[in-house]
Specification:
This protein is α+β, with helices and mostly antiparallel strands and 241 residues long. The protein has two domains: 2-207, no CATH class; 208-241. It is built from six helices and 14 strands. The chain has helices at 20-23, 49-58, 64-74, 186-191, 196-199, 210-240, and strands spanning 2-3, 26-34, 38-48, 76-80, 83-84, 88-90, 96-98, 103-113, 119-125, 133-141, 145-150, 154-156, 159-161, 178-183. The strands form three sheets. Strands 1, 2, 3, 6, 7, 8 and 10 form a seven-stranded mixed beta sheet that branches. A five-stranded antiparallel beta sheet has the order 5-4-9-14-11. The radius of gyration is 24 Å and the shape is elongated. It starts with a strand and ends with a helix.
């Protein structure tokens, strides 16, 4: 798998030293794992433990955590070219667990079949719209796919700038992350895994383009064969002496 974007693991402001205001923020983490013909989506809401306990005490009936998880699930939509994509819920081994510095993590997941070879895959997160929040997103692509564009990067003068998705951000664009997908060409497949900036078609000049790497790899084959032939010839010459 080609890891395109790494998300932050710790909630901003976590720990006793974090500002009190930040410790009241809601953390939203989205992970898209795009396979050959399907996508797995994970959404994690990091909620202040104090807030969850207060709401649980005031709730009526049992199953508060289950109702909270189902509420989170209902507010997240997977989209393809802007239209909701049918998705099947996926069981999470540990849907509720302690987070960092006084936060609790609530996780829900889905799997959806990709309807085409070209399109914009996105997520709409409608959870806690009135609450201040931080956002962290990660995208992993199977080698079949190439990302032509994504909301997770800023581009200026042909170079990637402000790679803000790599850490928690307050930018509301994190509510609707998206990535434009297309099938990888032969040379792009042959180039093998590379970080996102090198895979973004026409976006960045950081590092050699995939087609150049593929040509260099193919050029090494005859060189290796020639070296092997010369080595055998030299060996036979030494034996003849």
């Amino acid at each position: 798998m080609l890891l395109l974007v790494l998300s932050a693991s710790a909630h901003p402001g976590a720990g006793p030293g974090g500002p009190a205001a930040l410790r009241d923020y809601v953390g939203h983490r989205v992970q898209l794992t795009v396979g050959a013909d399907a996508v797995d989506v994970s959404y994690v809401a990091e909620l202040p433990e104090r807030r969850v306990l207060e709401e649980a005490r005031g709730a009526t009936g049992a199953g508060y955590a289950t109702r909270l998880l189902e509420g989170l699930r209902g507010e997240v939509k997977i989209t393809w070219d802007g239209a909701p994509l049918p998705a099947t819920p996926v069981a999470i081994a540990e849907p509720v667990k302690p987070g960092d510095g006084g936060f609790l993590e609530f996780t829900v997941g889905w799997r959806a079949t990709l309807p085409g070879d070209h399109g914009r895959l996105g997520v709409r997160n409608g959870n806690y719209p009135e609450d201040p929040g931080f956002y962290a997103t990660s995208i992993t692509l199977d080698g079949r796919w190439v990302a032509d564009a994504t909301s997770l990067l800023s581009v200026k003068n042909g170079r990637v700038r402000d790679n803000w998705h790599g850490a928690w951000v307050k930018d509301e664009r994190g509510r609707e992350p998206w990535v434009d997908l297309r099938p990888a060409g032969f040379l792009e497949r042959a180039a093998g895994p590379a970080p996102l900036p090198e895979r973004m078609a026409g976006v960045t000049d950081d590092g050699p383009p995939p087609w150049l790497l593929a040509i260099l790899a193919l050029a090494l084959v005859p060189i290796a064969l020639l070296g092997r032939w010369l080595g055998r010839r030299a060996h036979r010459a030494r034996r003849a002496e």
